[in-house]
Design a protein that fits this description.
409 residues, mainly alpha, 12 helices, 52% helix
């Protein structure tokens, strides 16, 4: 009797596992088909690559292109590489190669910290999928250029060349933003490709200073930390794109979750895993996180105790805007984090976020949205810039999350 009971249980479990597997396969297949068709629609509007990349849409819903020196320039080539990875169709390999090659001049760019976004998303994915030796050398040179912004005094890579806080009087001398965690992956890759561990050492130093000065005791994050370039002392902890200096800007929290997850991947240092989990738990357990797990653009918009220094008019926005880009970044990160921790809650959250993004609430109808995959992201709300629009990096991390979901075991 017991034997028959256990046999029945195994049969039911096998059926449920098969059903889940079939659902996952069909979900990935359908979203891959959509991404390919939608991106062909975009390519029909971009023409051949000529020094500009897709970024967002304007007030009329028309495609906005941007110069290759914009921090987002690597995301569209990266998305093309991801579609190639999902489909195996060499059409996408060829398109990705063309859009990637356009960025080669950036390998010597030292004017900003975003070379990881620019070159790792494009050339890094290209090298991973093709082993093109030319890509290898470009990645190493790019990491060398990024390294020029590192200061042994602060222990960090300088983000912006200058800046001013919202009070218009505080001048930032060595601003470091939490976003910069995402550029460390390029340095680790360059160390592996070149055998030069100085890139890796810079990444570790930067991450350690981020833990020390960007994180609060509850694992929420400051957006901007300004250092004294002479003494290395912290001068300011503030925001530039969030609601207030003491609030938690959703995409900044997402960058941290993703960044410390990759730090654990590259070092196996449990301190980084602790931070990744802490930042994730803050996100998932927050009382102001919507049911579908796609966050508002800042966790503390309009809440008591959070006072913006910029002119916020709540009457203009009766509904607080969501940020699909933050949700896509976190979804992608959590598939990786779930693999390291074995924690089912991270896997479940990643799957729920991905399915939310793929729903009609966020995924654009085919042949609309200027060819972007997702709707409802926020760029720089305090500046009135890119509010409730598609953003190229939201699409990139959505596709990355889809690949990680497909490969997740």
């Amino acid at each position: 009797m017991n034997y028959l009971k256990y046999l029945a249980m195994f049969a039911i479990a096998g059926f449920l596992l098969s059903a889940c597997s079939n659902h996952k396969t069909s979900f990935v297949k359908e979203n891959t088909s959509f991404a390919a068709a939608q991106t062909r629609h975009m390519l029909a509007n971009t023409g051949e690559p000529q020094g500009k990349c897709p970024r967002t849409t304007d007030h009329d819903g028309k495609l906005v292109m941007t110069d290759i020196h914009d921090w987002v320039s690597g995301f569209f080539p990266g998305s093309l590489w991801y579609i190639y990875e999902l489909t195996g169709d060499t059409y996408w390999k060829d398109e990705a190669g063309k859009w990637t090659d356009m960025l080669e001049p950036l390998k010597t760019f030292t004017g900003g910290h975003d070379l990881g976004f620019m070159m790792n998303c494009s050339y890094g994915n290209g090298y991973r999928l093709t082993q093109n030796e030319a890509y290898k050398q470009i990645l190493i040179e790019s990491a060398n250029s990024l390294s020029t912004r590192f200061s042994p005094v602060t222990g960090c890579i300088k983000s912006w060349n200058s800046g001013t806080a919202w009070d218009d009087s505080t001048k930032w001398e060595f601003p470091v933003i939490v976003d910069n965690m995402m550029n460390l992956e390029l340095l680790f890759l360059a160390s592996k490709l070149s055998g030069n561990n100085s890139y890796r050492d810079i990444a570790i130093s930067h991450a350690n200073m981020t833990i020390k000065n960007h994180l609060r005791p509850d694992f929420s994050s400051y957006h901007v930390v300004d250092y004294d370039p002479v003494t290395g002392a912290v001068k300011d902890q503030a925001t530039h794109q969030g609601f207030s200096d003491n609030s938690t800007w959703a995409r900044g929290q997402a960058w941290g979750i993703y960044g410390f997850t990759l730090m654990f991947r590259e070092t196996q240092n449990p301190a980084y895993l602790k931070v990744a989990k802490g930042m994730t738990d803050f996100y998932l357990n927050h009382s102001n996180l919507p049911e579908d797990l796609i966050p508002y653009w800042d966790f503390n918009v309009g809440q008591q105790g959070y006072v913006p220094e910029w002119k916020y008019d709540a009457s203009k926005y009766p509904e607080i805007q969501r940020d699909a880009s933050a949700g896509a970044i976190v979804a992608s990160a959590l598939f990786e984090l779930a693999g390291y921790t074995g924690d089912a809650k991270y896997q479940a959250a990643a799957e729920k976020m991905l399915h939310s993004l793929a729903s009609a609430s966020y995924r654009a109808p085919l042949n609309t949205n200027a060819g972007f995959l997702l709707m409802h992201s926020v760029g720089r709300f305090p500046h009135g810039h890119e509010i409730d629009v598609p953003l190229v990096y939201a699409d990139y991390y959505f596709l990355e999350a889809l690949i990680r979901y497909k490969n997740f075991r």
